[in-house]
Description:
globular
Amino acid sequence: MVQRYWNFIKSSDVILVLNLEKEGIKNYIGGSTLIGMGFAYGHGKKIFLFNKVPERSERIHYVDEIVDMKPIILEGNLENLT
């Protein structure tokens, strides 16, 4: 499944991460999504986050890596896509 998504990302111009609340964590970004973001970043793709970067927690300790990819934050509004 990862390879299939990587092919989609590779052939796309941008990715949109729908980082919604999950299990009580606002703006959740899981491990698989982080891998996809890294792949997109490595291929020079724009990365859009639907919501803000999640806060650091016991389950999300890779906030610095997310920020380093310089995602464009949409603030929950798809009209902000540029």
